[in-house]
C-alpha cells in the first residue's frame, strides 16, 4: 500500500519543482518521429539524438506546433532505454504558433557529449471520419492532420517522420514540396509513410520559420475498429468502513465518433452481417471491460432500465501490493448496436471489499484508500471526467494525491441518506484522458472511532423517530367527518 502512495507523492512534488537554470546550446544529430494512427487517440514518439555544444548542459528545449500542443493530452520525456521520467516544464506563451517545453536531463553534458531523448505524447481528436457519412454496408475511413516538420530551437542535421496505420489501406496522403531534401519528400511502404529524411533544418522554433516553412499534411486511411469517445464520465467512489465496502459507480456518456449512419438502421442487414461475421467497422456491438478483481453486485442500467445481456467473469480478490494483475472481465452489451454518430448513456457500478484498496498507515495515523481514475477502454478518449470520492462520515484531515494534476479539485461535504453530519468528498475534474492516464488517486484521512458508531446510531434514532411518529399518529383523529 505504502509503496505506490509514496512514489505518487514524490512524483507530485517533482512535477512542480521549479527549474533553476535557463536553456543551453545543443544540436540535433537526428530527430525521428513515429506516429501510430488510431481512432480518437494517436500516439506519437519523438526521439532526439542530441549533442551538447557547451559544458554543463542539462536543460534541453523541445517545441510543439500550436495545433499539436492543443491536441496533446499527455507528454512524457525519458532517456532512451531508461524508465525514469524526466522533469518537464511548460514555458510561457511564445510569439508564434508553437509551444516550448524545457526538459531537465538526468546529468550534465560536456561540450560534444551526446544523449538520446525520447518524448512520448498522446494526441486526441486529431482524426475525423472522412467521408462524414457511411451506410451500414460501407467501410470506415479517417483523416489525420498534422504539421510536416518537427520544430526545434536547435539546428537539426536530419529529421524524418514515420506515420503508421494499424490497417493496411492508406487511401491518400499529402506529397509536400520540401526544400530540405533532393529526394522524394515522402515514401510509402505497406501501411507506413515516411516523410523525410529532411537535412540541415535550421532552428525552427520561431515565428519566421513556422510562417514560411511549416506545412500541414493529411493521411486518409481505412480504420476497421469503432471510433469511440466518452463525452462525459462521472465516477463516484463511496468508501464505507461500516460496510467494509468500496462502491464505484460510473455514469458514462458514450459516443460512436465514426461516420454518421447514412439512411436508416436496418436490423435485418445487421443480423445478416453478424451472421457472416462481417459487421460494419463503424458499428459497436459491445465492449470488453477490465474491472477490478474481487468485485460483486455488478449492475448496468440505462434510461430504460436494467440491461441483462452482458456477461461477467469475476476474478477473486488480489492481496494488496501483490504482483498479481488479475481482473474481472465484463462483456458489456448495450441495448442496441451503436452506429456512427449515435450516443449511449448508461450507468455501471459494483461493490468491492474495502480491504482490497484500503490500508492503515501507522506513521500518519490515517487510512489510505486508492481509487482508479477510470476503467480504461483502449484507444478511447474521455473528453471530460468528474471523479468524486466520498469518504466516511466524520472523516477529518483529508489529503489526496493524484497521479497527475487535475484541472480543478475541491473538498466538499455531501449529505447522504442516514448521515447526520454529512460526508466529506474529494472531487477531481479532468479533460482529454486516455489510457496513459490510468492512474490511482490516493486519499488519506482520519476517522475518529466514534464515527464508526454514527451510522448504527443514526439508524436507531430514525427507527425511534418512526415509533414515536406512529404512536402520535394513532392518537390524532384525521377523519374529516365523525
Ligand atoms: C482537449 O482536447 C481538445 C481537442 O484536441 C482541445 O481543443 C482542448 O484544448 C483540450 N482541453 C484540455 C483542457 O486539454
Ligand atoms: C435492476 O436490477 C436490480 C438488481 O439486479 C434490482 O434490484 C432492480 O429492481 C432492477 N430494476 C429494474 C427496473 O428492473
Ligand atoms: C450525441 O451527443 C452529441 C453531444 O455529445 C450531440 O451533439 C449529438 O447530436 C448526439 N447525437 C445524437 C444522434 O443524438
Summarize the structure.
This protein has two domains: 2-222, Immunoglobulin-like (Sandwich), CATH 2.60.40; 228-457, tricorn interacting facor f3 domain (Immunoglobulin-like, Sandwich), CATH 2.60.40. 13% of the residues lie in helices and 46% in strands.
What does this molecule look like?
It contains five helices and 30 strands. The protein has 482 residues and is mostly beta strands. It has two domains: 2-222, Immunoglobulin-like (Sandwich), CATH 2.60.40; 228-457, Sandwich (Immunoglobulin-like). The strands form seven sheets. A seven-stranded mixed beta sheet has the order 4-7-2-1-11-14-13. β13 and β14 (192-201) form a beta hairpin. It is flat. 31% of the residues are buried.
| Mean pLDDT level | 85
CATH topology annotation of the largest domain: Immunoglobulin-like
Number of strands: 30
Beta-strand level of the residues, as a percent range? over 45%
Give the helix/strand layout.
Elements: H1 2-16, E1 26-36, E2 41-52, E3 57-65, H2 66-71, E4 72-79, E5 88-90, E6 98-109, E7 114-124, E8 127-129, E9 133-134, E10 141-147, E11 156-164, E12 170-173, E13 186-189, E14 192-201, H3 207-212, E15 216-222, E16 228-240, E17 245-256, E18 260-261, H4 267-275, E19 287-292, E20 296-302, E21 311-313, E22 327-332, E23 343-353, E24 358-361, E25 366-372, E26 381-390, E27 396-401, E28 408-414, E29 423-433, E30 440-446, H5 449-475
Parallel strand pairs: 1-11, 9-18, 16-26
Antiparallel strand pairs: 1-2, 2-7, 3-6, 4-7, 5-6, 8-10, 10-15, 11-14, 12-15, 13-14, 16-17, 17-23, 19-22, 20-23, 21-22, 24-25, 25-30, 26-29, 27-30, 28-29
Bound molecules: 2-acetamido-2-deoxy-beta-D-glucopyranose (3 copies).
Pfam families: Ribophorin_I
Family: Belongs to the OST1 family.
Subunit structure: Component of the oligosaccharyltransferase (OST) complex.
Amino acid at each position: 500500500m505504502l509503496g505506490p502512495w509514496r512514489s505518487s507523492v514524490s512524483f507530485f512534488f517533482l512535477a512542480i519543482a521549479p527549474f533553476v537554470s535557463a536553456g543551453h546550446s545543443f544540436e540535433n544529430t537526428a530527430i525521428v518521429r513515429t506516429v501510430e494512427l488510431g481512432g480518437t487517440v494517436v500516439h506519437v514518439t519523438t526521439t532526439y539524438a542530441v549533442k551538447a555544444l557547451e559544458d554543463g548542459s542539462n536543460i534541453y528545449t523541445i517545441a510543439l506546433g500550436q495545433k499539436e500542443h492543443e491536441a496533446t493530452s499527455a507528454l512524457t520525456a525519458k532517456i532512451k532505454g531508461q524508465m525514469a521520467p524526466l522533469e518537464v516544464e511548460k514555458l510561457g506563451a511564445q510569439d508564434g504558433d508553437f509551444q516550448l517545453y524545457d526538459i531537465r536531463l538526468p546529468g550534465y553534458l560536456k561540450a560534444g557529449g551526446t544523449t538520446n531523448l525520447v518524448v512520448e505524447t498522446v494526441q486526441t481528436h486529431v482524426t475525423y471520419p472522412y467521408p462524414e457519412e457511411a451506410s451500414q454496408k460501407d467501410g470506415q475511413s479517417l483523416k489525420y492532420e498534422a504539421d510536416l516538420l518537427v520544430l526545434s530551437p536547435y539546428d537539426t542535421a536530419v529529421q524524418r517522420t514515420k506515420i503508421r496505420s494499424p490497417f493496411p489501406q492508406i487511401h491518400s496522403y499529402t506529397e509536400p514540396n520540401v526544400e530540405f531534401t533532393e529526394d522524394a519528400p515522402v515514401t510509402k511502404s505497406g501501411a507506413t509513410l515516411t516523410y523525410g529524411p529532411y537535412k540541415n533544418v535550421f532552428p525552427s522554433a520561431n515565428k519566421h520559420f513556422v510562417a514560411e516553412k511549416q506545412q500541414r499534411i493529411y493521411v486518409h486511411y481505412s480504420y476497421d475498429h469503432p471510433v469511440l469517445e466518452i463525452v462525459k464520465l462521472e465516477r463516484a467512489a463511496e468508501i464505507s468502513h461500516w460496510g467494509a465496502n468500496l462502491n464505484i459507480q460510473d455514469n458514462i456518456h458514450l459516443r460512436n465518433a465514426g461516420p454518421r449512419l447514412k439512411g436508416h438502421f436496418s436490423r435485418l442487414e445487421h443480423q445478416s452481417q453478424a451472421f457472416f461475421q462481417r459487421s460494419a467497422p463503424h458499428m459497436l456491438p459491445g465492449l470488453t471491460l477490465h474491472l477490478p478483481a474481487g468485485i460483486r453486485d455488478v449492475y448496468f442500467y440505462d434510461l430504460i432500465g436494467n440491461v441483462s445481456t452482458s456477461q461477467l467473469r469475476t476474478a477473486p480478490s488480489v492481496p494488496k501490493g501483490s504482483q498479481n494483475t488479475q481482473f474481472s472481465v465484463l462483456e458489456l452489451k448495450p441495448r442496441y448496436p451503436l452506429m456512427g454518430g449515435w450516443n449511449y448513456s448508461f450507468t455501471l457500478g459494483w461493490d468491492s471489499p474495502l480491504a482490497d484498496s484500503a490500508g492503515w498507515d501507522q506513521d500518519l495515523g490515517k487510512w489510505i484508500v486508492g481509487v482508479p481514475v477510470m476503467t480504461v477502454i483502449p484507444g478511447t478518449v474521455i473528453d471530460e471526467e468528474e471523479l468524486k470520492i466520498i469518504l466516511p462520515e466524520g472523516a477529518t484531515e483529508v489529503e489526496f494525491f493524484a497521479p497527475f494534476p487535475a484541472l480543478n479539485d475541491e473538498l466538499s461535504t455531501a449529505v447522504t441518506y442516514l448521515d447526520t453530519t454529512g460526508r466529506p468528498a474529494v472531487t477531481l475534474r479532468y479533460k482529454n484522458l486516455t489510457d496513459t492516464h490510468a492512474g490511482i488517486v490516493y486519499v488519506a484521512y482520519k476517522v475518529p472511532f466514534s464515527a464508526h458508531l454514527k451510522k448504527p446510531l443514526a439508524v436507531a434514532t430514525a427507527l425511534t423517530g418512526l415509533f414515536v411518529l406512529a404512536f402520535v399518529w394513532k392518537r390524532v383523529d384525521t377523519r374529516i367527518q365523525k
